[in-house]
Structure formats: structure tokens, C-alpha cells
């Protein structure tokens, strides 16, 4: 369902989509380290500034850890925004790609706001848990976005046709007539 000149758009979509997955996962790991190292208030309760400054003095480890979490979010933002822009401009007819990319971007904006609330409420446990839950949901969305954009080869004997994964149905199941024939293609 991609536009006819798909080669350029597909490569760009893959770069941004895979970048979204990898950077989102890394950001979640950094966020876990912020939590386990008790660095969540390393920048104080000021947000978006860190200790009231754009470029704070990097003299405390907890400040560096918290600031790295905040700054790495820009990397995630570039990839998620890039995926959405490529989807909007090159994949308008692939509604699943546009929907997931747009939802990921909106969720990331909500996540940033939730991060602000987490800091300004002195790491309220309920808000902190919601922050982690939304991060996990964003990771799931960008993973599903890759699955819906990635071309799959049809596993039918003698077929070299490339199919796109649309919706939740497996490409193996799509090319099968019965569930048992699908299982025989998955299991050795």
C-alpha cells in the first residue's frame, strides 16, 4: 500500500522506525537507571530546565544521570517525529503505518508531559509508574509500526511475492488456508 516509488521512502521509513525502537528502548533503560540510582530529582524540581539553567554545572552524578535521560529524549523525538513525517508524506494509503506513527508521536508528547509531572510531584509513585507504563506502550507501538512497515516474503511454495503486513494477522497465516497448515510452516 505504499506509494509507487517505494524504494526511497521504504529506506527512510526503516531508518526512522528502527531508530525509534532502539532509541526508545535505550531511553527506558536510562530511565530505569535514573530510578535505581535515585537520580530522579537530580535536576531539582525545575522543568524543563535543570537546576533552573539550560546548561547546569555538571558537578553531581545524579544531575548528569537525570540530565542524560532528559536529553536522550530528543534523540527519541527525532526518530519518532521522522517516522511520522515519512508516514504522512509517503504512506498516506497505508493507514496502519500512519495511525501507528501518529499515535507514537502523540504518546511521546504525552510521555514528556508525564515526565514533567513526575518531576514536579517529587517522584510520586503513581505518576512514576504511569510514566514507565506509557514508555512501555510507546515501545510496543514503535515495534508494531516496524512490523506493519516491513515487507515479508510469502512462505507459499513456489511464490516469491512480497506481501505487506496489514493489521494483526501473521503473514504466515495470511498465506495459509487452514490453521494447521500455518503451524506446519512455523514449527519444524
Biggest sheet details: 2 strands, antiparallel
Mean pLDDT: 82
State the oligomer. Answer: single chain
- Structural class of the helices, strands and pairings? mainly alpha
Contiguous low-pLDDT stretches (5 residues minimum) are 152-156, 158-188
Q: What Rg is obtained from the alpha carbons, in whole angstroms?
A: 20 Å
Overall structural domain count:
2
Provide the helix percentage. Answer: 55-70%
Element string (H = helix, E = strand): HHHHEEHH
Tell me the span between the first and last alpha carbons.
Answer: 32 Å
Shape: elongated
Helix segment count?
6
Strand order of the largest sheet: 1-2
Fraction of residues in β-strands = under 5%
What does this structure look like?
- This protein is 66% helix and 3% strand.
- The protein has helices at 6-36, 61-90, 95-120, 125-149, 171-174, 179-186, and strands at 151-153, 162-164.
List the helices and strands and how they pair.
Elements: H1 6-36, H2 61-90, H3 95-120, H4 125-149, E1 151-153, E2 162-164, H5 171-174, H6 179-186
Helix pairs in contact: 1-2, 1-4, 2-3, 3-4
What would you say about this model in short?
With 188 residues, the chain is mainly alpha-helical.
Keywords for this entry:
about 190 residues; mainly alpha; 2 domains; disordered C terminus
Amino acid at each position: 500500500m505504499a506509494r509507487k516509488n517505494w524504494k526511497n521512502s521504504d529506506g527512510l521509513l526503516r531508518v526512522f522506525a528502527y531508530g525509534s525502537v532502539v532509541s526508545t528502548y535505550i531511553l527506558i533503560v536510562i530511565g530505569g537507571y535514573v530510578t535505581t540510582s535515585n537520580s530522579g530529582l537530580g535536576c531539582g524540581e525545575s522543568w524543563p530546565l535543570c537546576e533552573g539553567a539550560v546548561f547546569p554545572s555538571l558537578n553531581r552524578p545524579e544531575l548528569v544521570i537525570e540530565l542524560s535521560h532528559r536529553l536522550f529524549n530528543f534523540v527519541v523525538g527525532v526518530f519518532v517525529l521522522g517516522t511520522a513525517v515519512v508516514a504522512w508524506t509517503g504512506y498516506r494509503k497505508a493507514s496502519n503505518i500512519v495511525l501507528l506513527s501518529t499515535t507514537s508521536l502523540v504518546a511521546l508528547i504525552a510521555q514528556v508531559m508525564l515526565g514533567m509531572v513526575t518531576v514536579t510531584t517529587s517522584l510520586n509513585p503513581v505518576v512514576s509508574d504511569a510514566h514507565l507504563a506509557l514508555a512501555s506502550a510507546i515501545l510496543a507501538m514503535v515495534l508494531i509500526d516496524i512490523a506493519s512497515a516491513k515487507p515479508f516474503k510469502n512462505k507459499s511454495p513456489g511464490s516469491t511475492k512480497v506481501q505487506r503486513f496489514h493489521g494483526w494477522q501473521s503473514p504466515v497465516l495470511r498465506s495459509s488456508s487452514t490453521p494447521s497448515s500455518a503451524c506446519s510452516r512455523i514449527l519444524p
